Structures are given as structure tokens and as C-alpha cells.
Amino acid sequence: MKRIQSSWARRLIGPVALLGAGLAAPAWAVEIEGQLGFADRVALSTPVAGVVESVPVRAGERVEAGALLLALDSTPFDQRHRMAAAQIEGLSLAADEAALDAERVQALYDRTVGSDSERALAVIAREQAQGERDRVRAQAALRAWERDQARLEAPFAARILSVDAAVGEVVSPQLTPPTLIEIARADQLLATSRISADQLGSLALGDEVTVARGDDRRTGMVDAIRAFSDGNGPVQYELAVRVERGDGWRAGQSVVLELPDD
Asked: Average pLDDT in the 126-131 region?
């Protein structure tokens, strides 16, 4: 096995097994220092404008998926939806009546009793009535969507990193949506480290990497491999390994990543 010459510490991590009268070759790994960080850090905002009515979470709190994080005052959203919904029934009746009238005019036309202009006007009236009905239906659906978007809910089990909104604050996302709540996964962390191309070796996305913090060792999965260079030195890589959060594991702590030495 080719050994990578590096300033990083190396240690024997695999057991040594006896084969007959001799010893098997030991399993080695390159040990590099890394740091824990937040996984799936997301800044949340509402796509609709309104007034903040409630913020039932605080920074540092852990919430389950679907938990309410922030709600805008629902009054204007409810009223706009009701106004659109109230028009649908009347417009549906008008569209049905226009369709029946068009059928009657068509029947007369087929019997050579009606004129071309009467038939054309009946068809136009039918299309206009149906179009107005469909427009209001779409408007009601849009108002219902806006009402739903006035609530921020956790997309996954998360830890609240920051709360940047207060009750009574006006939210206006027309230009640049403001960050109202920032979250990250509660059950996972990212262990990251900068390594050389030789240390990266044949590692690929999805490969398993052991992450150790003291005596607690966990198997993680390579989540990202980012290349970077300052333009002068050699290309380096930032390796990110997604790992399940252990007891006492927090973002910002130092860990050791055990990479295969190939």
C-alpha cells in the first residue's frame, strides 16, 4: 500500500488478525483534524408581506419537523380568500346559464332559425362567463396559497440558530426577503477539514468516513468535496462529512477524520 507523506498524524485503527503463523497487514488510516459545523443551515422567510403575529420559538431551541416557527396576522389573507371564494358560486351559475343559452342558440341555428351573429354572440358570452369563473377560481387558489405562506414551519427537525423577527414587525419581501428564522438540522452535523489532493485520494461523495471526538467514534458519509485555490499554491479541498449528532457534540468542536490511506 502506498503511504502518503504528510505532516498529519497517523495511527493504527484496525485490529490485527492472525493468519496461520504470521500477522496480517494492519489496516491504516490517515488522521486529520477537522471541526464540527451545522448541517443544512437554512435562512427562512415568508414570500408574502404582512405583520408578524407570533414567534413561538427562541434561539437555541430544538423543534420537530412541522413545528410553527413564525406566523403573520392571518386577517388580510383570510378576508381576501373569502372575497374570491364568495364570487365563485355566482360566476359558476352564470357560466352554466351561458353554456345552456349557447346550446339553445346552436339548436336554432341548426334548424336555420337562428342567425350567424346570434350564434357568435352566444358563443362569446359563454366563453366570457367561463373565463371569468375560472379567473376567480384561480384567484381563490392564489389567496389560499398566500394564507398558507403566512406561516413558517420547520421543514425538518431543527435547532433554532437565530430569531430575527418580533411581534408587530412588518415583513415586506418584495425587494429582498428578510431572514426571519435561521435553522439547522438538530440530528446531524457536518465535520469539515481542508486537505490536499493526496490526502483526498480516491474518496468520493457517499463514501464512509469515521469521525472521532475523544473516545466517541461515528461513521459519517462524505457530503461535499469543494476545491479551492488562492491562485499561487496547489489546489486544496474542503471535505465535508455528514455525521449523526452524538451526546455532547456541538458545532465548533474539534474532531478527527480518519481517511483511508490509498
From this structure: 92
